[in-house]
Amino acid sequence: MRVSTNMIYDQGVNAMQRQSAAMLHTGLQISTGRKILTPADDPVASARALDLTQSRSVNAQFTVNQGYAEDALKLVEGQLTGAGEIIQYARERVLDAGNPALSQSDRRSIATDLSAQFDAMLAIANTRDANGDYLFAGYQSNTTPFADSATAGVRGAAYAGDQGTRTMQVSSSRFMPVSFAGEQVFGSGGGSVFKVLGEFISALETGTNVSGAVTDALGGLDQSLDKVLTVRAQIGSQLVEVEQLGFIGSDLDLQYATTLSGLQDLDYNEAISRLKQQEVLPAGGTAVLSQDHRPVAVQLSELMSMRCLVPPSMLRLLRALCMVAPLLLPACASLSDDERPLSERAWQDLTEQGANVAGVTGGLWMLSELKMLDPQYLSGMLVAYAFYDPLAPSWRVALKRNGEERVLMDLKMRTLITGGEGEARQVFLRTARRMVEEGGYAGFDVLRYEEGIEATRPFARRVAEGEIRLLRSRQFPSL
User: Fold this and answer.
1) Contacts of 396 (CB under 8 A, 6+ apart)
2) What percent of the chain is helix, strand and coil (3-state, nearest 5)?
């Protein structure tokens, strides 16, 4: 199969594009702090993260529902506290009315007081929440649960709601009641607290069988108080349950967040190390780069199309030189001055150059024996040289005067240079000392210095900036 130059060139271009895409992907990971940018990066982890995100959202909704349930229960509990206080006060007034020393006028005054308590109890029974729903109407939240009525001159309140109880889901398996039917709290029929109060008020107003009415009223009020206290105890238990569910929900949220962090969050040390590795393009591609405004073009396809960069005859000559030079140089160095055909200066130059030739030829011989002079290896070395030109400066230093004696420095390391930790400050101080020497100053003071890594582009690089003040005199800096 024949491999054309265009095919090799296309393969190099494709390799460069893949490498650029990989570097761009790593750069996006560093900028976002996420190692999974698309589901294609890790399908299993992406699916797991999606499930955990949904579970965390559901748990967050349960937490919100727990807050709503707690508010609703506290509202009901507050109303029942008021109802219990009214029943307690009414019981005391019933005991007062049982005093035989009271006149009929006194009993009518007590009846008037109890009528006001009847109205207060009716207002509590018809309480609405923030949404305008009645608390004690069951499912009939838009219907007034208790309506004031009178039968044969005796006040009462007929219940118009139902026996339903509205609930709210506060966990995956818990539907908590947040409202109560009116008959469950205030009683029904003859056992209703409204019926008890209405009959006793009527007895006080007419003055008939007061002692018997006192006995009946005390028994009815005690039963009504028991109902209220039973519901309050249930509400207290539910409030404790809501608090415990809140603790459980917080623990679950922390667990979900920790697991999601392990799946999604990026390991910056690993990512930056990977980015540094990706900055070096693999051998076999085409690179056109610009370093310090000096373009470098490397056509690897042309190198790959060559049969051999070093002719076999040249390799044989290099091997011979490499073998002979180490033997000749020591022998020549051992000759006396009279035996040497050249002058001392020329002989010294020849010895030095001969050592260089011996070293170069020895290195080339070693490379040839290791098959390192093949086109693919040489092309890779040329690419590496294009990226890391040892003759090009590693740092770009921009100077800006800030007044007569202050100088701002902006240092940026070459984009495709790895390492360099600790070099920025050395370059900063070296530049400052050079300015002192060239300007005839006595010294300088460092006013500000900062350094870091610029990772806003696919190629991360080290940067630093600072400010110095040039001193005319150490003893009198302002001079």
Assistant:
1) 292, 411, 412, 413, 414
2) 60, 15, 25
DSSP 39: G
Distance CA 295, CA 301 (A): 18
- Contact 296/290 with Cβ under 8 angstroms? yes
> Distance of CA 161 to CAs 134, 142, 226, 262, Å?
10, 9, 21, 53
Tell me the C-alpha to C-alpha distance, in Å, between residue 136 and each of 80, 231, 405, 448.
Answer: 11, 12, 82, 71
User: Who's near 113: CB < 8 A, 6+ residues apart?
Assistant: 93
Regarding pTM above 0.70, the answer is no
Coil vs helix vs strand at 148:
strand
Q: Do residues 194 and 157 lie in contact, with contact meaning Cβ atoms separated by under 8 Å?
A: yes
What's the sign of the alpha-carbon dihedral 234, 240, 246, 248? Answer: negative
Listing DSSP states for 49-66 in one string gives HHHHHHHHHHHHHHHHHH
Largest Cα separation within the chain, whole Å, is 158
State how far the Cα of 275 lies from the Cα of 277, in Å rounded to an integer. 5
Q: Each residue of 157-195: pLDDT tens digit?
A: 989 999 999 999 999 899 999 999 999 999 887 789 999
Tell me 9's DSSP state.
H
Closest Cα to residue 159, out of 131, 190, 128? 190
In tens, the pLDDT along 322-335 reads 555 555 545 454 44
